[in-house]
Design brief:
With 373 residues, this protein is mainly alpha-helical. The chain has helices at residues 2-26, 34-48, 58-72, 89-102, 111-114, 116-141, 145-156, 161-169, 174-199, 208-233, 239-262, 264-295, 300-311, 315-324, 333-354, 359-368; strands spanning 79-80, 83-84. The relative contact order is 0.14.
Length: 373
């Protein structure tokens, strides 16, 4: 009971800080709202951590805290002791990809041969729907070329581990989700640069070979190292399985925070419009991905999986690509905005579907007394 009271008090304190923030905004003192906003998000995250239905939102709230810190105090996140913190982005992405590799094995790709239709449709949807939507929105935006190219970039990126988590929460087809993520990620070093040349090439110059090599360093080499480690360790080092999800989330949070600090001025100028376009991109990805799967007679469960895989992109990788070509403060903005919004919409969608099990699931529950995945 005592612990619940602590979490409840944290939520009450966050509500008080929220009122204070509103007062500062209304009174025209938004420039003084930095620490109250940070306190609000910190208290809210701590309060959410004490309630099981809200625990999934803690990471997203902490991301918003990092973004607020970046907007109010960017100097803290740009350089430390003469070292530019943007130099951390690629190593952090490599750590995330290594962690992804340690959770994978050759068996994860067996689904390609068992049920090739679902995998092929999912990967096809991933490689076509989001790039086209991104290009369309970028053309409509009238943003500076490099910022517009960032919208295309997030569309041309593969899905990430977050989509697997949301598929699990939505009671979707987790095996299909993991396989689509794995294959689209492995294909990314070759497909993403070509799509960027075709679509974003109308905004900025794209060096396909240089981009391919940068993605190989960020994806294939770390994932390969992770796969090898996973094979060699056998049943040992299980602590890594528990640690890597937390390390990955922390790394993603740091990447988003650094990008936001680097692009602060541009984000303050176009942030509202960019957020709206990114939200449209994300939601259209869910919707079109779902109906694309249904068009090919995919089951409801698989259609939900493909919707999540299409709508949720690997913002961290997109940020790493932007950083590798020296455009983190411009091209990196859309991925930085996409990440937090994607986690919010993904959580909402997963919760909605979790409460509405598909018909075949209900049938199995009635017949056998339990659900069989």
């Amino acid at each position: 009971m005592k612990r619940i009271n602590i979490y409840s008090l944290a939520l009450v304190f966050s509500a008080i800080l929220f009122v204070l923030v509103l007062f500062l905004i209304i009174s025209g003192n938004i420039s003084k709202a930095g620490w109250p906003i940070l306190g609000f998000f910190a208290a809210l995250a701590f309060g959410f951590s004490g309630y099981q239905p809200l625990k999934g939102l803690v990471f997203t709230v902490m991301i918003f805290a990092g973004v607020a810190l970046s907007l109010y105090y960017p100097d803290l996140l740009l350089e430390v002791g003469g070292y530019k913190l943007t130099g951390l982005i690629i190593p952090l992405i490599q750590i995330i990809m290594f962690g992804m590799g340690t959770t994978m094995s050759i068996k994860d790709f067996a689904l390609v041969f068992k049920t090739p239709k679902g995998v092929m449709i999912g990967v096809l949807a991933q490689l076509t729907i989001m790039p086209v939507i991104g290009f369309t929105l970028a053309k409509m935006s009238n943003f500076p070329p490099e910022i517009a190219a960032g919208i295309v970039l997030i569309g041309c990126s593969p899905s990430g581990v977050a989509s697997n988590v949301m598929a699990y929460l939505a009671n979707a087809n987790i095996a299909l989700s993991i396989t689509i993520t794995s294959i689209s990620t492995i294909l990314a070093p070759f497909i993403t640069p070509l799509l960027m040349k075709l679509l974003a090439g109308t905004f900025i110059e794209i060096d396909v070979l240089a981009m391919m090599w940068s993605i190989v360093k960020m994806i294939l080499i770390p994932i390969g190292a992770g796969l090898l480690f996973n094979y060699l360790r056998g049943s040992g080092a299980k602590w890594l399985d528990r640690a890597m999800p937390m390390v990955s989330m922390l790394a993603i949070g740091v990447v988003i925070t650094i990008i936001t600090a680097a692009g602060r001025d541009s984000l303050l100028e176009i942030g509202g419009i960019l957020m709206l376009l990114v939200l449209v991109h994300n939601v259209f990805g869910y919707s079109i991905g779902y109906w694309f799967a249904r068009l090919f007679k995919m089951s409801e469960r698989d259609a939900r999986t493909i919707a999540i895989e299409v709508g949720m992109q690997n913002g961290g990788l997109a940020s790493g690509i932007a950083n590798s070509i020296g455009k983190i403060a411009t091209m990196g903005l859309a991925p930085a905005v996409f990440g937090p919004l994607m986690n919010i919409t993904g959580s909402i969608l997963a919760s909605y579907w979790h409460e509405r099990p598909v018909k075949e699931e209900i049938g199995r529950q009635i017949d056998g007394g339990m659900t069989i995945d």
